[in-house]
C-alpha cells in the first residue's frame, strides 16, 4: 500500500504535524460527517460553506490527515496537515493516486456542452455495449458499471467519488467509460487527475449564470476540460457552434470537428426530419433512425465520430446506431391506446434546448397545435426564466407556465419572472398553474385530436423538489393518467 507521501507525488504542498512518509490512508472524504478512522479529510471551500470549518469534526471522527488551503489554529501532532494552493486542484490527482490511476487503465471519454451531454453519453454507452465492449457510464440520469445500475446524484461526481467509480469500472474490466463533464465539475476541479482518451464539445448557450456569473466564465469553465486533455487524446468539437474554436485554442489534444453547416472531419446532411425519425446522410452514408430533431442529428454525429476515432468499424457503428432509441426523458413519447393526442416529455431546461425541441415540433407538426407545459427550477439561474417563457410562447399555440423543481423558492414568484418575459399579447394567451399535475391535466383537457403536447424541463426525473423534499412525481406517469382521463372526449 502507498504512503500519503507517495500519493502526494506531483502535488506542491507544505506539511505540518505528522509526517506523511509513514502514513497509510484508509480512505478519503470531502464531508466531515462521513469521515472515518485513518481517512484524509479534504477541506474544500464552497461558495456558501467552507470545509475548513469542519476540520475539527473530521478529526473527531478519526481522520489522520487533512488537505487544506490554510493552517488551522490548532495543529495536532498525530495528524498530518497538507497545505496546498487550491484543494480543488490537488484533490483529483491525490484521489487518482489513491485509487491507482483507474483512468489510465481504460479509455475515458468526456462530453461537455450545455445541451446534448446526457443523450450523447447514453448513446455511446449503448453503442459500445452492442459493439461487444464492457462499458461504464457516468451521467445525470444514472451511472452504470457495465450492466450494474447505480444512482447518480450529480451530472459529474466529486473528485473522490469519480476516482472511486472509475476504479470500480476498471476492476469490472470495463474498456470504455463515457462521462458527462459539467461546467461546475470542470470549474471545481472534480475531473482534475482524470486521464482522458477523448473530449467532446456539443454546444454552449445560456445556462448556469447564477454560478458562473458571466457567459465568458461559463465558456472558460468548459474550456478547462479541453485544456486538461493530454496530447494523446482527441478533442472533438461541434464546429457549427461559434465557441468551438475557443475550446481548441492551446489544447494539446488532436483536434477534430463535426458539423452540418461547415467543412469538417465528420458531417451530416439532413434529408428528412419527422416525428417518426431522422433520415440523414451521415459521413457519406444514407442513414435512418427513430431519434427526432436536428439536435439529435448532431448528437448522433458526435457519437459516430467518437466511435470512428476509437477505431470501431464504420458499417457496424451505423447499423447499431440506426436501431437505438432516445434515452429516457429525451423527446420521449407518451401515448395511450385510442387517444390520438401525441405527448412528448423532454428534459429541455435551458432556453436553447427548449427552442430546439419546439422548433422540431413546429417543423414536424403539420395540422395540430403545440401545447407546452414548462417551468423553471428554483434556486438556480433566474436570468433564464423570462427567456424560456419567451421561447415557449414564440413556438406554442397554447402555453401553460407551471412549476419545475421550485426548491426553496415561492413557485408563484418563479412564474412572475417567467411571465415578465412575455409580451402583453402573449400573456393574454398564457395560463399559469403552479401545480404541475394540474397543469398537465389542463394541457390534456385542452388538446384536440391532432395536437401535440410538450411537457418540458424535468424529463427522466421521478420527483419534484419542493422545500427540501423530493416528492414522487413523473411527467410521463402524470401524462398517461391525464390522457386516460381525457379519453372520453374521443370515444
Ligand atoms: C450550489 C453549488 O454550486 N454548490 C457548490 C458549493 O457548495 P456550498 O458552498 O454550499 O458548500 P458545500 O458543498 O455544502 O460545503 C463545502 C464543503 O464543506 C463540506 N462540509 C459541509 C458541511 C458539513 O457538515 N461538513 C462538511 O465537511 C462539504 O462536504 C463540502 O466539501 O461549493 C461546493 C464546493 O465547490 C460544491 O461542491 C457545491 O456543488 C454542489 C455539490 C452542487 O450540487 N452543485 C450543482 C449545482 C452541480 O454541480 N451541478 C452540476 C450539473 C449542472 C447541470 O448541468 O445542470 C453537476 O455536475 O451535477
From TrEMBL:
It catalyses: UDP-N-acetyl-alpha-D-muramoyl-L-alanyl-D-glutamate + meso-2,6-diaminopimelate + ATP = UDP-N-acetyl-alpha-D-muramoyl-L-alanyl-gamma-D-glutamyl-meso-2,6-diaminopimelate + ADP + phosphate + H(+). Pathway: Cell wall biogenesis; peptidoglycan biosynthesis. ATP binds at residues 113-119. The modification N6-carboxylysine is found at residue 222. Carboxylation is probably crucial for Mg(2+) binding and, consequently, for the gamma-phosphate positioning of ATP. The lineage of its organism: Bacteria, Pseudomonadati, Bacteroidota, Saprospiria, Saprospirales. Keywords: ATP-binding, Cell cycle, Cell division, Cell shape, Cell wall biogenesis/degradation, Cytoplasm, Ligase, Magnesium, Nucleotide-binding, Peptidoglycan synthesis. Signal peptide: none annotated. Belongs to the MurCDEF family. MurE subfamily. Its EC number is 6.3.2.13. GO terms for biological process: cell division; cell wall organization; peptidoglycan biosynthetic process; regulation of cell shape. UDP-N-acetyl-alpha-D-muramoyl-L-alanyl-D-glutamate binds at residues 30, 32, 155-156, 182, 188, 190. Its main location: cytoplasm. Residues 329-459 form the Mur ligase C-terminal domain. Residues 111-306 form the Mur ligase central domain. This is UDP-N-acetylmuramoyl-L-alanyl-D-glutamate--2,6-diaminopimelate ligase. HAMAP family: MurE. Residues 26-99 form the Mur ligase N-terminal catalytic domain. Its cofactor is Mg(2+). It is found in: Cytoplasm. A motif (Meso-diaminopimelate recognition motif) lies at residues 404-407. Catalyzes the addition of meso-diaminopimelic acid to the nucleotide precursor UDP-N-acetylmuramoyl-L-alanyl-D-glutamate (UMAG) in the biosynthesis of bacterial cell-wall peptidoglycan. GO terms for molecular function: ATP binding; magnesium ion binding; UDP-N-acetylmuramoylalanyl-D-glutamate-2,6-diaminopimelate ligase activity. Meso-2,6-diaminopimelate binds at residues 380, 404-407, 457, 461. One of its GO terms (cellular component) is cytoplasm.
